[in-house]
Amino acid sequence: MIKREEPRAIDMLRKEMDHFFDDLVPFSWKKENGGSDLRMWSPSVDISEDDNEYLIKMDIPGMDKKDIKVNYQDGRLTVTGERKTESKEEKKDYIRQERYRGSFYRSFTLTDSIKDEEIQATFKDGVLKLVVPKTETVKPKSIKVN
Questions:
Q1: Residue 89: in which H helix or E strand, if any?
Q2: Does residue 39 register a pLDDT over 80?
Q3: Quick check: pTM over 0.70?
Q4: Is the pLDDT of residue 92 over 50?
Q5: Exposed (0-12), middle (13-18) or buried (19+): which is 122, by Cβ within 10 Å?
Q6: CA distance 79 to 67
Q7: How far apart are CA 19 and CA 137, in angstroms?
Q8: How far is residue 26's CA from residue 108's CA, in Å, rounded to a whole number?
């Protein structure tokens, strides 16, 4: 069997599609933020929104919460971490290895209308959940013309 450490074609295609859609949504992870480094892996993310908040759920199974860092600065929410290889596994000769190991980096550009001091992060059962509250939007006032 041949050991394979190079990225698979489907992984490269997925990353290219992610870059293609970066400009179409208010969140993004771009090349300049480490997104194109194929030696890094990228956890899958679901992002939803309602009138009050953004909800980001990131699958990071097999990690400890102490190995995950969440930061917010200048309108950018970043999540970084590292899934470590167990030393006893390093000695084995793998036939197939599909689980990612090593560092990851995800970055999301947020709109200005969030309450950055109220962002919450919880980690349970391998899922990182980020709740990003929105500020109240000021509705336009109707002015009666006399």
A1: helix 87-90
A2: no
A3: no
A4: yes
A5: exposed
A6: 11
A7: 30
A8: 8
| H/E element, 88 | helix 87-90
The residue assigned the tokens 């997104």 is 35
What's the token pair of residue 4?
A: 């394979």
Of the chain, the end-to-end C-alpha distance in Å amounts to 84
Question: Which position has the higher pLDDT, 99 or 108?
Answer: 108
CA dihedral 44, 107, 79, 103 (to 10 degrees): 70
* DSSP string computed for 9-29: HHHHHHHHHHHHHGGGSS---
Cβ contact 41:102 at 8 Å: yes
**How many Å apart are CA 113 and CA 49, to the nearest integer?**
13
Q: From CA 137, how far away is CA 48, in angstroms rounded?
A: 18
Joined together, the tokens standing for residue 116 give 């950055």
* C-alpha separations of 143 from 130, 136, 138, 140, 146 in Å: 39, 21, 15, 9, 9
Question: φ and ψ at 68, to 5 degrees?
Answer: -115, 130
Q: How wide is the angle at C-alpha 27 spanned by C-alphas 21 and 32, nearest 5°?
A: 75
